[in-house]
């Protein structure tokens, strides 16, 4: 199902870059060619490490069609650090090992996702200085663990979007949660 959404997204992307036929035809795939082979840029999926292990067809689709993979939830703070100061990289490391064994690049999900997907211990922090320090420690710990294993992170775009929203509305849930300042936004760069 994610694959179908991905293809629909590619078609939409073609529409965004231009309405010329050649822009859209560049993503058409010859029947004998895989999606990863057809593209001149990394093609990836958000994948479930559990599904890679349990489903042969899922695993084979990822192996054949993707050149890059991202963890669906295995690399989110609630999974990596369910308790403050306690880190469990086991499932994320399995994803990294799978990617390496298949010569796939790994694109990391955003290091700090929105508050609803954060572990409960993180949601309970109300002091902005403590939250910034805690998030900085978390980002440094996770970044150090995955250094050299993750090719790219979904972070800068989130910062840009957050900054635009922060400046326009000052109503982002993290900002409201802790009366956070621009210091948090600078930290995520």
TrEMBL record:
Does the record's keyword annotation contain Cell division? no
Q: Which EC class, in a word?
A: hydrolase
User: EC number(s) in its UniProt entry?
Assistant: 3.2.1.8
Recorded hits in InterPro entries, A to Z, give:
GH, GH10, GH10_dom
Q: Which UniProt keywords apply?
A: Carbohydrate metabolism, Glycosidase, Hydrolase, Polysaccharide degradation, Signal, Xylan degradation
In this chain the GH10 domain maps to: 29-189
Give one GO biological process term. xylan catabolic process
Please indicate which superkingdom the organism of origin belongs to: Bacteria
The GO terms this record gives for MF are: endo-1,4-beta-xylanase activity
Note the Pfam families from the entry.
Answer: Glyco_hydro_10
Q: Would the keyword Cell membrane turn up in this protein's UniProt record?
A: no
Q: Please report which protein family the annotation says this sequence is part of.
A: Belongs to the glycosyl hydrolase 10 (cellulase F) family.
The name of this protein is endo-1,4-beta-xylanase
**Record organism:** Spirosoma telluris
